[in-house]
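User: My instructor asked us to take a sequence, write out its structure as tokens, and then describe one feature of it. I'm not sure where to start. Here is the sequence I was given:
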Amino acid sequence: MQYTGKKVILVPISEKYREDIFAASTPTLVRFMSWSAPIDISETDAFIKNAMQDNLTGKTYTFNIVDLVSGQFIGTCSIHEDIPGKKEVGIWIKESSQGNGYGKDALQTLLVFAREALQLDSLLYRAAPENIGSQKLCESLGGVYIGISTLKHKTEPREMPMKDYIITL
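Assistant: Let's start with the prediction itself. The structure tokens for your sequence are:
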């Protein structure tokens, strides 16, 4: 099932955009993420395979973000659970598409999905303290700052400080 916003369509993650995901996952894009840029496309394939499996089981909900008009790949977004019992929203937009309102539209669309399909009333949103754009995006959607936490990096032996927000649906 896909979900349509004003600028984007959220489609369940699939191999269709594997080369786009790989190409967009640059070191500068992922510097605020809990994962490293893939060195080989097989790492992207593994991510997609795991995300598709998690979508089937309802563990997470990961979507490709696609431009409504052109059909071009824009990024990915998800609802997942890094902290047990707390559903969290995550998003990344490829660098060449940032600053065009795609992130806000994708998150607005994902929040409707969370409220209507998953019956959630709030979501955790985490942003690196240096990622001002992500913080502003969250705040523009009503996100309320609740404090600092740490996030274990998935591919490196380190923890990352994160600014935590709650978005009420």
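For the description part of your assignment, you could build on this observation: The CA atoms of residues 126 and 164 lie 5 Å apart. Try explaining in your own words what that tells you about the chain.
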